[in-house]
Amino acid sequence: MFLQQLINGIALGSVYSLIALGYTMVYGIITLINFAHGEIFMVGAFIGLLLISVVKVNIFFAIIGAMVFCMVLGVVVELIAYRALRKSSRLSALISAIGVSIFLSSLALMVFGADAKGFPDNAFPVTQLHIGNADVSTLQLVIIGVSALLMLALEFIVQKTKIGKAMRATSEDYNTSALMGINVNRVISFTFALGSALAAAGGVLVGVLFNAVSFNMGLMAGLKAFAAAVLGGIGSIPGAMLGGLLLGVSEVFGVAIGYSSYRDAIAFSILVLVLLLKPTGLLGQKITKKV
Amino acid sequence: MGAILQSFLAGFDPYLLQILVNIGIAIVLALGLNVIVGLTGQLSLGHAAFMSIGAFASALITNKLGLAFGPNLILTGVITAVIAAIIGFPILRLTGDYLAICTLGFAEIVKVFFLNFEPSNKALGLTVQNAKTDIPVPIWVFLVAVLSVVLVSFVQTSRFGRALKAIREDEIAAEAMGINLTRYKIQAFALGSFMAGVGGGLYAHFLSYINPSDFGFLKSVDILSMVVLGGLGSVPGTVFGSAVLASAPEFLRFMSQYRMLVYGALLVFLMVFRPNGLMGGVNVMDLLLRAVGKKPAGVAFKEKSTT
Predict the structure, then answer these.
(1) Which residues pair with A131 in a beta bridge?
(2) Closest CA to B202 of B293, B135, B272
(3) Cα end-to-end distance, chain B, whole Å
(4) If you measure CA to CA, which chain B residue comes closest to A110?
(5) pLDDT digits over B222-256, tens only?
(6) Does the CB of A85 have a partner CB in chain B at under 8 Å?
(7) Lowest mean pLDDT: which of A56-65, A231-240, B287-296?
(8) Which of A46, A143, B68, B172 has its CA 20 to 30 A from that of B262?
(9) Is B105 within 8 Å of A272 when comparing Cβ atoms?
(10) Which residues pair with B126 in a beta bridge?
(11) What is the ipTM of this complex?
């Protein structure tokens, strides 16, 4: 029972982590809470659904297709809605992000309708494996595997490549990096592309896992992923991974011990408690402000 | 008295009256949030939670205790403010986005609490009995909206308001000047939540049915958009922003299914072209004086930095 719930929790949590990474990277560089990120996740799920049910590709190509589409979408959103606001108050950018979020979700409502869509039955053949006394579906293993792979790829890009180095420099000090000859606009676009691609992958995985894709799935998933990012310490990439896993696992255990009607409150209660004890999140760094 | 007002309201188009009442309630809520976000600079994403606490408290007071509407609203406001102060004490130590997400998390917890709360019928929602008053509820709404404008205008220029603005501009400098950060932040939070509670009470009695799901994240966002769109920290701006956004869904009704699409795009474009809000940096008093010729033409649009 324990092992079973742990695996369920990790599968859910790794998806939260994928979405949380997008929040945390964007926040790390331009200190914007990108509220449209949850909707990018939703759009990714729909693109995956279209690719699987209309174009009839297998799940891995669907994930790649959704990632590419959302990369472009993320960059376009940044270009239209955030770039002009980079120098103005952070709240204006926040409202702009909320506007994008409302726009995208009502667009999805118009295009795809209000009811949740399911994947075709043969989208991903699921077999149950028995590990100890736990039933693990191959789907869960794929979710955990794909998430782990993407996070490793991200870690490689951020730590080992030139653009990754530029990203780290920009998040350290925006103005100085610009002075050092880093093309800050390109770095920001790249960050949005990267974050959106991860969210899209998460969207397809969640869609297949729950076999439901709907226009309003982005809101709660986005809020929880954002909570995960803050829980781990916003701006910190390992923090987002840890926060996502922690939220996923505790949510699944909370439901398992009988608090299913409090499901959405569990994640946020943990968040509030952790922030009260450690105001910068688990792995966040304390920034001392000077006058 | 009540009968006269009733017949006065009967002359109005009910549809127009409803829009006006929505605007009135929005003004009360947005001005409350303006004290927290605009004046004190503490970003709250959970204003709807205090609205829901007020709505349910006020509805239960009417349903179970049968208290008259005036005392009911005051009691509701006090209850909400006390809860806000209790919650504010630990969470207002957080700053910036950590505070924002904490208020958001708190709002979700409140929503789930009411969804599981027996006295308010859980997820079925609560039917509110008629307000115990002779004066029709729409008149109450307009009255409270005007009172809110007066109250917040006074607060803004008072000693208390100046302390809040100092906290907004620079917490460390404010503290060095002898401002007790915790005390002022909690007072501002409680004042804003008092108004949210009263607004919630009005909302509950005007609609006579409330459901916990009506007070979700999107409601908080709605209220925050009104404050930011109008211009942070500006009372005329907030009133204007509330009027625009509370009536926008009605004006956009002719577009039927494109309504929310346009609303979202509108938010983006308004922010991109007026980042400080519609009235941000516009001195309304100045414009008025100039319009009546009491002041020579000068610079109407001041560069103002808002955080």
Answers:
(1) A134
(2) B135
(3) 47
(4) B257
(5) 898 888 888 888 899 899 989 988 888 788 777 76
(6) yes
(7) B287-296
(8) A46
(9) yes
(10) B210
(11) 0.81
CA B34 to CA A265: how far, in whole Å? 27
Domain boundaries, given as residue ranges, for chain A: 1-277
Structure tokens at A278: 């450690």
Q: Do B267 and A95 touch (CB under 8 A)?
A: yes
Q: How many CA atoms lie within 13 A of B184 on its CB side?
A: 23
Q: What is the spatial distance between Cα A36 and Cα A43, in angstroms, rounded to a whole number?
A: 11
Q: Which amino acid, one-letter code, is at A136? A: V
CA-closest candidate to residue B34, choices B164, B132, B146: B164
Q: Which residues of chain B neighbour A269 with C-beta distances below 8 Å?
A: 105, 109
Q: Which residues of A touch B304 (CB under 8 A)?
A: none
Q: What's the whole-number mean pLDDT along residues B210-229?
A: 88
| DSSP state string for B54-110 | HHHHHHHIIIII---HHHHHHHHHHHHHHHHHHHHHHHTTS-HHHHHHHHHHHHHHH
Q: 3.30.70.100, 3.40.50.450, 1.10.3470.10, 3.40.50.2000: which CATH number matches A1-277?
A: 1.10.3470.10
Within 8 A of B277 by CB-CB distance, chain A residues are 92
Mean pLDDT for B97-123 is 86
Q: Within 13 Å and on the Cβ side, how many CA atoms surround B192?
A: 36
Q: B108 vs A264: CB contact, 8 Å cut-off?
A: yes
